Amino acid sequence: MSDELQRFKEKVLREYPRLSKDDTFKFACKPGISCYNECCGDVNIFLTPYDILRMKNALGIQSEEFLDKYTITPFDKNQNYPVILLKMQDDDKHTCHFVSPDGCAVYDDRPWACRYYPIGMASPKENDEEVESAFFFLLNEDHCKGHGEGNEMSVAEWRIDQGLDKYDEFGELYKELTLHDYFARGKQLDVPRMEMFHMACYNLDKFREFILNSSFLTRLELEADLLEKLKEDDEELLRFGFRWLKFALFAEKTMTIRPSALGGLK
Ligand code: SF4
Ligand code: SF4
Q1: Measuring from atom 7 of ligand 1, which residue has the nearest CA?
Q2: Which pLDDT score, from 0 to 100, does residue 7 have?
Q3: Coil, strand, or helix at residue 166?
């Protein structure tokens, strides 16, 4: 974890009220509010694999182009796995590439963090003494005038309202990798495994090219219709990528190697 993230985590644990799914809050963000668009700049937004899938498809571009144009990949020697941040523009306010006078230009496919705001979520890691179980918290920042506006809503209702179901489903699968006890045991991925993680999670179109244009899939026992789905369906491909990473990085039995290929699959 970077120093900045560690400081943020400590601040959340110290200062922010914890919320359960049933706790309520009052918040609304809509055109006309005095701070409209103010939060869409100079901000660290971590992108999940599903965020990237949704945004690159909304823009009609390949994952590689999306990563090149709109993201940065910060690296810290203590990092367990590669992370992706949304790149801000190089203007005075460091505005997001997608903010427009009418709001977010990719609103239907905006990232997880933008959907959840002003709710944040903390998850425990293996042996985490500070966080025993997952909880939500309310970010109440001075510049944001949406607090106290609109109807009272529970966190659960907010999640439905913001279309978070699919994001949460894929978020849970992603956490099975990022919070894996492999890392809690102090192990680190080497460079080739970091690259595998990056490709299968974030560079989906390259991952598809890799598995379809190599002998990779011929070495695995696959479900009957999976190959056809992997050719077309990004969500299926991402699920398969998560499965492969558990197999390749953490030696989980999520895949079966054909007997004829034993000894050749890495
Ligand atoms: S993606 Fe959309 S909602 Fe998120 S910071 Fe950018 S403009 Fe704002
Ligand atoms: S600062 Fe708050 S109310 Fe203002 S645009 Fe951002 S989320 Fe909405």
Answers
A1: 99
A2: 75
A3: helix
